[in-house]
Amino acid sequence: MAHDNRSVDDEHSRLAGVDDTTVEALGELSKALETIHRVRGHLYSAHQLVGGADLTLDRVVTLLHHAGHKDVADRVQHELLGRNLLPGRWTFQIVEEFDDGYYATFQEIERYARETLAGGRRHIYEAEMKERRRTHGRPGHEATPQK
């Protein structure tokens, strides 16, 4: 397939010799990485939500003691407050392990694939899709920002 990338900026244009299947594979890898970015955000949300819930337990314990429910208050305080989410881990440790392990490796491999196969260029697939789908000459359909 011949590609006319005259309207795509240099940063997002395909290098000579890069075939359609490679561009599609890099697009799918980028899409997968974007999903992992979202996963990371959800982990940070869980981290903050669990932490907030744990801090709320302080008030729960106090209220239960004031209401005369010592056994229930003691159980919340000693079995739930400050409890690990996973064996040996609070959420900050889970987030750190994710960031330093899976997340860092995924980013490194995606970057390696782009550098090895496309000269480091990002979003080639999307840039070419934009070029195919936009209406040339119409306001709001420009190929790149006007300078």
Q: How would you sum up this structure, described in words?
A:
It is a single chain. The longest helix has 47 residues, at 20-66. The protein is elongated. It has 147 residues and is an all-alpha fold. The two termini are 31 Å apart. It contains 4 helices and no strands. The chain has helices at residues 20-66, 70-80, 91-118, 124-133. The protein has one domain (18-120). It is 65% helix and 0% strand.
Provide the descriptors you would attach to this structure in a database record.
disordered N terminus; elongated; mainly alpha; about 150 residues
Topology:
Blueprint: H1 20-66, H2 70-80, H3 91-118, H4 124-133
Mean model confidence by pLDDT: 93
Helix count from the secondary structure assignment: 4
Radius of gyration, whole Å:
25 Å
Distance from N terminus to C terminus (CA atoms, Å) equals 31 Å
Portion in beta strands: under 5%
Could you say how many structural domains there are in total? 1
Strand tally, please? 0
N-to-C order of helices and strands: HHHH
Low-confidence stretches: 1-5
The main pleated sheet reads as: none
Shape: elongated
**Helix and strand composition category:** mainly alpha
Level of helix content? Answer: 55-70%
